[in-house]
Specification:
Layout lengths: L1 H24 L4 H24 L1 H6 L10 H28 L7 H23 L30 H16 L3 H29 L3 H7 L10
Helix pairs in contact: 1-2, 1-4, 4-7, 5-6, 6-7
Length: about 230
């Protein structure tokens, strides 16, 4: 059942990306079709693998609301989702109509594809290394919530968010929109930084050892920078 939910979820992601990208393009768009096919081709095997070897973590990530979620976090989460949708819509709008900057050349597009793949791997790895990742900010006392400080979490405190930034930056560059790449990267960075502040307040209030973890791992999103 979990595998089926994951497959349906991936196909829905692809469908959502498709309806955000393709109608505005108004015709055949190789880069967009390639991205959609590639995403499905890697996300479904990853999802099946994670369902088999990390089922608790995958189930946790399907929790979309909780009575323990604060109103502040609901607003932040809705803002992040809105920016992702708006930024994705902006990509074909810029490429085919606005042309704020010249379309990214093939070298930048290939770089974008590589960044997207790195972002996907970082998100996937971060999720599999932390069974307590949920879309909502809450302490999962019923599941023995604890601080994860190994793997990617030994280098940055929120590696999944780092992966999200790379994921959307890469998509925008591969599809040719430098303007959208800048918009998505800057706005998502600001919103994620704000959510991290709220998330870490919750963790500090619950776990005495979190201050020690912060002292050991300085970076929130980008090693050596932030």
């Amino acid at each position: 059942m979990l595998v089926l939910k994951i497959i349906i979820g991936v196909l829905f992601q692809a469908f959502l990306f498709g309806i955000l990208l393709l109608p505005i393009a108004g015709g055949y768009w190789f880069e967009a079709y390639f991205f959609l096919c590639l995403h499905v081709a890697i996300a479904i095997p990853y999802g099946i693998y994670s369902a088999v070897y990390f089922p608790k973590g995958m189930e946790a990530r399907m929790v979309m609301n909780s009575e323990n979620q604060s109103k502040k976090d609901k607003i932040i989460l809705a803002s992040i989702a809105s920016i992702m949708l708006l930024g994705t819509l902006l990509i074909p709008t810029d490429v085919f109509y606005l042309e704020v900057f010249e379309k990214a050349n093939p070298s930048f597009q290939i770089l974008g594809l590589i960044i997207y793949l790195i972002g996907f791997v970082v998100v996937a790895k971060a999720q599999n290394q932390n069974d307590f990742i949920e879309p909502v900010v809450e302490i999962q006392t019923d599941r023995g919530h604890k601080i994860i400080d190994s793997g990617l979490y030994a280098y940055v405190r929120h590696p999944m968010y780092s992966g999200f930034l790379l994921f959307f930056l890469g998509i925008a560059l591969w599809l040719g929109s430098i303007f959208s790449a800048l918009f998505l990267t800057i706005t998502l960075f600001l919103l994620l930084a704000y959510r991290i502040q709220s998330e870490e307040e919750t963790l500090q209030n619950e776990f005495d050892e979190y201050m020690g973890y912060k002292a050991k791992v300085k970076a929130k999103l980008i090693p050596g920078i932030f």
